[in-house]
Write a structure and sequence with these properties.
By secondary structure, this protein is mostly beta strands. 0% of the residues lie in helices and 56% in strands. The strands form six sheets. Strands 5, 7, 9, 10 and 11 form a five-stranded antiparallel sheet that branches. Strand 9 and strand 10 form a beta hairpin. The protein starts with 6 loop residues before the first strand and ends with a strand.
């Protein structure tokens, strides 16, 4: 949470004058007044990985780059920034535009950000936010290494820009800057990204099923072997491999699919898929994408209550 910290400013007004009858006798009067400035917004921000729909470059492609090639040839990662703005103003305000600005990024990394929320750029659809009300906005962050052999982690230093004004028509536009936590992008580490498809229609004969996909990524230069185990649960049944193994060549990814049949409704369900890197003896964390929620033990999916 980016909190609003009040800023105290001391204004000093000094008047120098003299009486008409005594021009050689200067008189001064000093008035000191404290003014407190407070930011009208606070922000709560979290980052969520996304599955890149574009194919990865081939590690075994011997084609040499030239000046006509794209400037970035390396690995790419897509993240989504979910920001929840809270208004701490004492009156309604009009939010015209919200931007996510990159303050610092490595020279070997290209970063592009676009707003994917309801307020477009520019602001024909500005929204009015009431005191103590909330507004959510989302950004898509696309980062790419310039060189395929570069797998150093990258840290993005980010800042939120909120362009707003008061509700009357001739009010000038003000800009509030809110710092948000930096984003560490590990380009060289294997990842497991979970995604959930739309649930199937349930009826008396066919139960509700939710397709789940787990994408394993190997951005390293090593051949990695993984052992996957889906744990059983009292909250759902599933079809798909309970245990399986995968071998990923350098700079490749594979997807394992399941169909989950929830046994409870109206709650978050946590399928526990254990992914073990058998070579390095490390258990990889499963991260949720889209509407899934990342937790310490994996990625959970919401199941609507029965109608």
């Amino acid at each position: 949470m980016t909190k609003s910290i009040p800023t105290e400013t001391v204004l000093e007004i000094k008047a120098l004058y003299h009486i008409l009858g005594e021009p050689d006798t200067p008189i001064s009067k000093v008035l000191i007044h404290e003014v407190i400035f407070d930011r009208p917004f606070e922000a709560n921000n979290d980052f969520q990985p996304c599955i890149d729909p574009e194919p990865w470059p081939s590690y075994f492609d011997t084609h040499d780059s030239n000046e006509e090639d794209e400037p970035a040839q390396g690995l790419r990662q897509i993240w989504q920034s979910n920001t929840r703005l809270a208004s701490f103003a004492t009156e309604p305000l009009v939010i015209e535009h919200v931007e996510l600005e990159v303050l610092d990024v490595r020279e070997d990394t290209i970063c592009n950000i676009c707003n994917i929320s309801a307020i477009p750029n520019p602001t024909p659809n500005a929204i009015t936010i009431s005191p103590k009300d909330f507004h959510e906005t989302q950004f898509q962050i696309i980062t790419q290494k310039c060189d395929l052999d570069d797998r150093q982690s990258t840290t993005l230093q980010l800042r939120l820009q909120i362009h707003w004004r008061r509700t009357h028509a001739d009010a000038p536009t003000a800009t509030t800057h809110l710092p948000i936590p930096s984003l560490l992008i590990p380009f060289g580490e294997p990842r497991v990204l979970a995604s959930a498809g739309p649930p199937s229609h349930a009826n008396d004969d066919i139960p509700l099923t939710i397709p789940l996909s787990y994408t394993l990524e190997n951005p390293s230069t090593h051949v990695l072997n993984f052992a996957l185990t889906m744990e059983t649960s009292d909250e759902f049944a599933f079809s798909g491999p309970k245990t399986t193994t995968l071998t990923l060549s350098p700079v490749t990814r594979k997807t394992v699919r399941y169909n989950m049949c929830p046994l409870v409704r109206g709650r978050w369900i946590l399928p526990r898929l254990r992914v073990l890197d058998t070579g390095f003896r490390q258990v990889l964390r499963v991260m949720g994408t889209g509407g899934m929620r990342s937790e310490r033990m994996g990625a959970s999916v919401w199941v609507d209550a029965e109608e």
